Amino acid sequence: MQFHLVTDIPITVVFEPTGQEHRLDAGQAVLVRWFDGDDGAVHWTDGHIVVYAPTSGYTRAWDSDGMEIDIGPESVDYTSTP
Known about the structure:
By secondary structure, the protein is mainly beta.
């Protein structure tokens, strides 16, 4: 599964379970892709969007320039790109 995050205000995206953060400016997009599972979740809290990896899978993400965002050891499958 994949989806884009886009906001009209600056916000911080937090990737769990690693806790890595990525600053998202207004109008910028982040492409998020879940691998090996579809029970991940996205929660919005005050000033943050939290992306939870699927239970038996992992998450990869790319910024609006197509550069992969380092979200820690969850970004382990280098065979797939956006």
